[in-house]
Amino acid sequence: MRELELYFGPQHLGMVGNFSITLKVEGDRILEATANPGWLHRGFEKLMEYRTWIQNFPMVCRINVIEPDSMEMVYAMAVEKLANIEVPERANYIRSIVLELSRVSSHLFGLWAYSNMLGFDTAAQWAMYHRDLVLDLLEELTGGRVYHIYIWPGGVRRDFPEGLKDKIVKTLHSIGSCMPDYDAVFFNNRLFYERAKGIGKITQEEAKKLGAVGQVLRATGIKYDVRKIEPYASYDKVDFEVPVREDGDAYSRIWIVRDEIIQSVHMIFKLLDKMPQGEVYNRVPNPFKWNIPKGETYVKVESSRGELGLYLVSNGGDKPYRVHFRTPSYTHGLIILEKVLKNASIADVGNTMISLYIIAPEIDR
Question: How far, in Å, CA of 322 to CA of 44, rounded?
Answer without folding.
Answer: 11
